[in-house]
């Protein structure tokens, strides 16, 4: 395959990538050409609305987590657990709806990534905070977990056009763990909550270790938070390739 040099950054791009960029420009032009009130909403496809419901579920989970921290009412904690799971259903169906309606859009791709970050990045991290991962070291690792999810989604959007495709046009694999897999961590937190292994009850499995300083200080760490750190590394890994179903 022949290649050419991009004038903007000096990197090599293939004709396939150039065509992808041109098609993207054409697809985005509708958002510029549409005038009048609610022009953005009028350009929504049905699949975009399904994706928005994913974002709604993630946002509601975050607010439920906050309500739990304020009231210690476990009803809110269980709501916070449930809504990312519901968001996964919407995340599964938005692509199918787009193909059914033959109405995929560039906006939909961006919406999908933002919704996934809320439901499968921010919401799980806050749930981990809810159940007891609250030390300074814990929160630093959880923040890195969110940032790795963000980076993974950005990389996907930037490179998806260049990933090898199958006969149906779908990418053959994911680079790094897909961010919805973080719901496996949420499921573990659900089990711990059911068994009372959370802050304020039996305490988290593995307890807490002090790396430096005094008890209750900034040097404490819950070993189980390292699972979130490893998951974060797996999401941004380039060598880990997960076949698409």
From TrEMBL:
GO terms for molecular function: CDP-diacylglycerol-serine O-phosphatidyltransferase activity. It is a multi-pass membrane protein. One of its GO terms (cellular component) is endoplasmic reticulum membrane. Keywords: Endoplasmic reticulum, Lipid biosynthesis, Lipid metabolism, Membrane, Phospholipid biosynthesis, Phospholipid metabolism, Transferase, Transmembrane, Transmembrane helix. The chain crosses the membrane at residues 76-93, 139-164, 176-195. InterPro entries: CDP-alcohol_PTase-I (IPR050324), CDP-diaglyc--ser_O-PTrfase (IPR004533), CDP-OH_P_trans (IPR000462), CDP-OH_PTrfase_TM_dom (IPR043130), CDP_ALCOHOL_P_TRANSF_CS (IPR048254). One of its GO terms (biological process) is phosphatidylserine biosynthetic process. Coiled coil: none annotated. Pathway: Lipid metabolism; Phospholipid metabolism; phosphatidylethanolamine biosynthesis; phosphatidylethanolamine from CDP-diacylglycerol: step 1/2. It catalyses: a CDP-1,2-diacyl-sn-glycerol + L-serine = a 1,2-diacyl-sn-glycero-3-phospho-L-serine + CMP + H(+). Pfam families: CDP-OH_P_transf. Its main location: endoplasmic reticulum. It is found in: Endoplasmic reticulum membrane. Its EC number is 2.7.8.8. It comes from the Eukaryota. Belongs to the CDP-alcohol phosphatidyltransferase class-I family. This is CDP-diacylglycerol--serine O-phosphatidyltransferase. It comes from Clathrus columnatus. The lineage of its organism: Eukaryota, Fungi, Dikarya, Basidiomycota, Agaricomycotina.
């Amino acid at each position: 395959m022949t290649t050419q040099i991009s004038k903007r950054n000096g990197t090599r791009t293939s004709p396939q990538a150039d065509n992808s960029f041109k098609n993207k420009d054409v697809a985005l032009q509708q958002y510029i050409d549409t005038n009048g009130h609610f022009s953005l909403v009028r350009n929504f496809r049905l699949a975009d609305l399904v994706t928005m419901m994913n974002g709604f579920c993630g946002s509601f989970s975050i607010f439920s987590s906050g309500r739990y921290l304020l009231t210690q009412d476990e009803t809110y904690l269980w709501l916070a657990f449930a809504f990312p799971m519901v968001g996964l259903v919407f995340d599964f169906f938005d692509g199918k709806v787009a193909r059914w309606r033959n109405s995929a859009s560039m906006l939909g791709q961006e919406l999908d990534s933002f919704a996934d970050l809320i439901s499968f990045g921010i919401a799980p991290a806050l749930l981990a905070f809810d159940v007891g991962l609250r030390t300074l070291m814990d929160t630093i690792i959880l923040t890195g977990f969110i940032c790795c999810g963000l980076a993974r989604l950005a990389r996907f959007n930037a490179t998806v056009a260049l990933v090898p495709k199958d006969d149906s046009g779908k990418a053959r694999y994911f680079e790094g763990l897909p961010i919805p897999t973080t719901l496996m961590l949420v499921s573990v937190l659900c089990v711990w909550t059911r068994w009372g292994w959370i802050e304020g009850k039996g305490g988290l499995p593995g307890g807490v270790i002090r790396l430096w300083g005094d008890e209750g200080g900034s040097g404490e760490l819950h070993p189980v938070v390292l699972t979130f750190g490893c998951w974060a590394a797996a999401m941004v890994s380039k060598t880990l390739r997960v076949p698409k179903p």
